[in-house]
Amino acid sequence: MDIRAHVSMVFHLDKCIGCHTCSVACKNIWTDRKGTEYMWWNNVETKPGTGYPTQWEDQGKYKGGWEKGKDGKIHLRLHNRTEGLTNIFYNPALPTIDDYYEPWTYDYENLFNAPEGDDQPTARAVSMITGKPMDNIEAGPNWDDDLGGSPLYASNDVNLDKLTEDEREQLNEIERVVFFYLPRICNHCLNPGCVAACPAGAIYKRGEDGIVLISQEKCRAWRMCISGCPYKKTYYNWSSGKSEKCILCFPRLESGQPPACFHSCVGRIRYLGVLLYDADQIEQCASVPDEDLVAAQRDMIQDPFDPEIIAAAKANGISDAMIAAAQNSPVYKFVKKWQIALPLHPEFRTLPMLYYVPPMLPVLAKTKDGNYDIEGLDQENLPTMLSSLEKARMPIKYMASLFSAGNVEEVEQVYRKLIAVRIFKRAQKVKGYQQAEVDTALAQGKTDAEEVEAIFRLTSLPTYEERFVVPPLGRESAVEAWERPLDRKREAGFGVRNKIAKRKF
Ligand code: SF4
Ligand code: SF4
Question: Ligand 2: distance of its center to the CA of 175 in Å?
C-alpha cells in the first residue's frame, strides 16, 4: 500500500450555466500573453458538440491516451519507446491551428477614429496571428455554444457514433433540442499520457497534491505531450517554444486560495477537496476492461477514516492537515461515498482525477407529438417528466460514452440516485407525489432519506467552506523543496518523501 494525497475537483453539471466566467478568469491570469492567444486552459463546451480543439475525443485522429494491447498491458496509443525516438521529428497526430481556431481581436480604434460617414463605424475582426482583417470567422473555442452551429457541428460529435438513428434525430430536432455544458481543465491524471509521451522528461506530477506540471526549463518543444494527452489539455506556446498547461493555480492553492476557475464560477458548480489513493493500484486500475474502469478507479480511492490508511498516509509524509481535509472532502463524498461523480472518458486510461456529476436536465423525458413519450413504459414507473431514463431526452448511451466508457449500468445508477433526490425533495417542498412513489425512487436509487438530504445540501446550499476544503499547501514540507522533482522522478516515481521500489512504468 502506497497512500498519497491528491487535490481533486468535482463539476456538478446541472448547475453549469455556460457563462464562461471560469474560462475568462483563467485566461486573464494565465494565457493573456504572446504565444498563448489560442489557449484556453479552462474551456466550456456544449454537448453534444465537437469541442475544442475540434473532435478532441476522436483518438483515431489524435492518438491520445492509452490502449490495451493483446498482452493485456496498456501502451501509449501514440508510439512505443523506440518509435518515440525514431519519429521524434515527425508527429502527424497534432491538432492544427484550424482545429483550435484562429484567435482574433477587434479593431476597436475604428469605433473612435473612423471619419464621419453615412454608416455606423464597425470594429472588424483582426487575426491575432497575421494581424490582418478576417472576413470570415469560422471557428472558436465554443463554436457550438447554444446551438450556434448545430446540427452542422454537433452532429460530428464522436459520442453519437453508438446511438441509433432515432436517438440521434431526437437530439437534433428543433423544439426538442437538448444540450448541456461541459467545463474542462487538465484532469491532473494519475496515469498521465502527457508525462509518458514526453521524450525530454519535462512533465512531472507533484508529490504533495498530484498537480501535473511542465518544467519550462526542461521542455524541448517536441510536442509529444499534446498528442499524448487525450483531453488535448497541453498547448504549444509558439513564442516561448515551450508547452504549457493548466497548473491548477498552484500558487493560489499554496496560499490557501482556490483556483481562479473555481473562485469565479457563477453557478458554484465546482468542489475542490483532497482524496487519498493507493498508488500501488495505478497500473492494475488502468488495465482493467472498459466496463470496470469506473469501479476500479473508485476502489483506488481510500477511506480517510480508516486507521490503517491514516497510518500509511502519515508514513508517506502526508500532513495531518491534508488527512483532515480528506476526511472533510466534498470530492470524496461525491465520488466515493455517494458514487454520483464520474471521470470523463475513463476509457482513455489516464485515470483522470477530476469528476463530473452528470446532468439531469430540467426535464428528463423526451416528448412525442407534444406529450411526454410514455409508449411502452411500465405503468409502475415513476412520473415520466422527471424520472424516465428509458425515454430520456439525452440518451443514456450518450452519457455512458462520456462518463463510464460505455457502461450504461454505471451511469444509470447515478441517475437513479439523482432522481431519488429530486423526487424526495419535490415531495417535501411542492407536493404532488405519493409516499409510495418516493419510496420507489429511494429504493431504485439504492439510497435513503438521510443520504438524499446530504446530497441535496451539498448540491444546492453549500457554503464556500463546504465546497473548498484544501489546506494551504505546505511547500516547505514537500520533497521538491529540497530536491529537484525531475531528479527524483526516475528514482522513486514522483515526488514522494521516501525512496520506494522502482516502478515498471
Ligand atoms: S489531462 Fe492533464 S494530466 Fe491528463 S494527460 Fe492531459 S495534460 Fe496530462
Ligand atoms: S463559471 Fe461555472 S457556471 Fe459559468 S461556465 Fe464556468 S463552470 Fe459553468
Answer: 25
